[in-house]
Design a protein that fits this description.
Elements: H1 10-16, H2 36-48, H3 56-88, H4 94-112, H5 114-118, H6 127-154
Length: 183
Amino acid sequence: MESKTPPPPQWVIDLSAPPAPKPKSGNIQDPPGYTSSTTAKRSAAAKQQIRKAPTASETDTLKLKKSWEIALAPAKALPMNAVMMYMSGNSLQIFSIMMVFMLFKNPLQALLQTNQVFTRYETDGTRGKLWMVKGVYMLMNFVALALGVWKVNGMGLLPTTRSDWLAWETARVPLEQTVFAFK
């Protein structure tokens, strides 16, 4: 007796065969602005259209725009940092201390790495215009540092009052002394 292999189950046949195309129903219209024939033409035209390489001036303009975005990024973070500093309170807690530490650390790191941040965008065409971008970047980081100084002052850690410097004050010599007579 010959052993016949059983036919594969229906799900195997369904997976191996591509689905049959469904005919478009005549009663459903295309959405406004969409026709299947125009999309086929557009995709064929898009494949044939070759994009030309950008010129050096266009590349320099794009690099300058991107460098301005980077220069203004610290200014976009200032409102968020200000709200976070306000919400963390003026008491000395680990959370507020960490927030103040990060508020000082990030702008200082950014100031030290200013030239490295903008080396990607420095070309012969942008070199003259990039100094202004770097200046704005540094200014925004100094404003973030000023926000940190404001927070440290609010926490009472800056020696801004006369009582903070009492160790260097000389004691007053009284002109008169009063002694209590009754014991």
